[in-house]
Amino acid sequence: SSCDPALRPIIRRRARSLPTSPERRKRAAVQCQVPGCQSRMHRVRFADALGLELTEVKVFQTGEDPSIPLHVLSRLSINSDLWCSSSDLEFTMQCFVPDFQQPADCMDFSSRLQEQQVCLERVTSSDLGLSGTIQVRNVAFEKQVSVRYTFNQWESLHEVCAHWHSSIPEKNGQGQVDVFTFFLPVPPFLLQLCSVVQFAARYQVNGREYWDNNRGKNYSLTCRTHPLKMPRECEESWIHFI
User: Fold this and answer.
1) pTM for the whole thing?
2) Beta 118-125 vs 129-137: how paired, if at all?
3) Which CATH fold would you assign to the domain 103-225?
4) Residue 218: which of 111, 135, 107, 123 has the closest Cα?
């Protein structure tokens, strides 16, 4: 009733055609010694899906060293280096680091937001690009927030739209603030030391336009080496990741 192909007869025919050693043929020819029993002794052999042998006996002479594969030797060498290192494994990676203090951590953040109507809150870097949040004063319901950025000192520029995330009350309690999120994709070839990304936030509402360009200096991030520490418990998972 099953539609699966019958594989067992094929495997049997392939297995029987394999040559056997004289010793195995001798063992296979030994009959059971129990009176009235005409069956042969039970045998156990290991074979793959095609019936090929999975075991092989190798006899080493005195002074003969076994041959160890190169990939096994390299793995043993890596594990030895990691084991002899410090308690925490430390690596370095390249990423964009802000050349400015995160605006949300500055004492004048609220006053800058009141003055400019828009202010960058904070920005973070990853291997895919830059992510950040922007706060704008809720002047009107219809509004548009975007980020204009460049990789080559404004010889060419790009612009992405930010998306509404949430609404929170202002710290002074006089109004409401909308929080927008944005993402700037960074091509992998730009992750080189000393590469610079510059950007500014734009806020359009009620037919007017407001900017936050870090008081005329623009927000900039420079690609630098960043140390990354990993606990020793993660040693094996890091090797598999590599």
Assistant:
1) 0.57
2) antiparallel
3) Immunoglobulin-like (2.60.40)
4) 123
